[in-house]
Amino acid sequence: MKDLLHPVSLVVAALGFLCLLRDVPTRRRDPASAALAAVFLLSGLSFLFSITPMWEYLDRALGTVNLSVPLAMGCVVALLACQQVVLTYWGSTPEVARRRSRLWLGAGFAVIAGLLVLFALLTPSAQRPIDFTLYYAHDGWYAAYLTLYVTAYTLGELFLARACWRLADRGTRGSVRFGLRVVALGATVTLGYSAVRICDVIAGVFDTSLADWEGFAWACGDVGAMLTLIGWLVPTISDQTQSVQYRIKQYRSYYWLRPLWLAFYSEAPEIELPIDRVAPAQRRRFRGIAIKLYRRAVEIRDGRFVIRQYLDAAVRETSEAHHRARGLHGQELSAAVTADQILAGIAARAEGTRPAPDQLTDFADSERQTSRPMDDIDALLDVARHLPRQLARAPHLE
Q1: Please, what is the angle between helix 52-62 and helix 68-91, to 10°?
Q2: Cα–Cα distance for residue pair 33/52, rounded to 1 Å
């Protein structure tokens, strides 16, 4: 049973770890993200160590029979502690989270140390990748080993289910609330595995066997673990999807701002930021789309500043009357008028004619409120949509 379910769970764990791996370097100061990545990694390792071919390979490579047992179970205990670290940082202040996280990690390491000591006291004479628990159920040291593991496992899953339900009720993001409830469901399902293992210990005392329940135990363990991983994966994939959408929006915005940028650059090439003066070691930072988009927005704002002294109030009044007649209003109206002002201002600068001081005015969209970085980009895009696409009249590097 486990050789059928473990590979599926391993794939889910690997997917989650790969989704988080890309963001771990940029979130070095976010312990919750690092702990969640560790949850997926440790979960995947626990499944990998328990698959029969890997079990047999480790026995041959390390020279110790059944060493996969403490390796896999140690990973499970560690990931239970890491899950609590994630929830602690999500639901507590940083000071409280740091204190509680140290306690959880300390408890996890203590359990792992106890498991290693008890495993060393076993006499694993035969390789048992399929029925290890049933084979050693009558060994006193293994009964102690299994009791320690099952106690830690059961308490960890109970705490996990309880904390997830509580945190889900307090959450504001739909993907996080849904994911936490799936995690709680998975933790509850894994209690079936705990129940069978507890009964294995009791059965060993009475010299009986629960061989018929092995399939049920592994099914509960794997299905519960898979649900838990999927629950953690839901907000992770949601974040990745939003990140990809944001990146696509940045690329599209960079392309759509080109006509507006060209309009200014054709008349005032000096607005281009001198990136060639940047140290070679720093130039890589300027290749990302976020920096390129920010650079384009800054250059457009510089272009607006250059032609601001050529804005004629008569042009603004005529443009407003024209676009109001077309049915434009609000931000759309101010964007269309601003586009007309830009074209007229560029033409006036090219001719060297300035309006009289009492005829100077500001851009129609100058009072538009922008609180977020992309709000400023959206304001520029609204103006760019009312400009014709044109070629630059001066050479430039794209």
Answers
A1: 110
A2: 31
Task: Check: CB of residue 39 under 8 Å from CB of residue 82.
Answer: yes
CB distance 72 to 54 below 8 Å: no
User: Who's near 21: CB < 8 A, 6+ residues apart?
Assistant: 37
In 3D space, the residue among 143, 125, 251 whose CA is nearest the CA of residue 199 turns out to be 143
190-228: per-residue pLDDT in tens? 999 888 877 877 776 666 666 677 778 878 888 898 899
User: What are the pLDDT digits (tens) for 287-344?
Assistant: 678 888 988 999 999 999 999 999 999 999 999 999 999 998 888 999 999 999 999 9
C-alpha to C-alpha distance for 141 and 120, rounded to whole angstroms: 9
Amino acid at 81: A
Residues 6 or more apart from 65 whose CB is under 8 A from it? 59, 124, 125, 126, 127
φ, ψ of residue 124 to 5 degrees: the values are -75, 80
Give the position of tokens 């496992």.
153
Strand, coil or helix: what is 63?
coil
What is the DSSP secondary-structure string of 155-179?
Answer: HHHHHHHHHHHHHHHH---HHHHHH
Please check whether residue 118 is in contact with residue 145, taking contact to mean a CB–CB distance below 8 angstroms.
yes
Helix and strand element counts for the chain (H, E): 15, 0
Q: Please, are residues 287 and 397 in contact by the beta-carbon 8 Å criterion?
A: no
Contact 138, 207 (CB under 8 A): yes
Q: Which residues pair with 360 in a beta bridge?
A: 312
Orientation of helix 214-256 relative to helix 2-21, angle to 10°: 30
Closest CA to 32 of 74, 77, 73, 93: 93
Dist CA 242 CA 175 (whole Å): 12
The CA distance from 248 to 246, in Å, is 5
The CA R_g of the chain, rounded to the nearest whole Å, is 32
> How do residues 84-121 score in pLDDT, each as one tens digit?
999 999 888 888 989 999 999 999 999 999 999 988 88
Residue 138 DSSP one-character state: T
> CA 263 to CA 271: how far, in whole Å?
11
CA distance 269 to 277: 16
282 CB neighbour count, 10 Å cutoff: 9
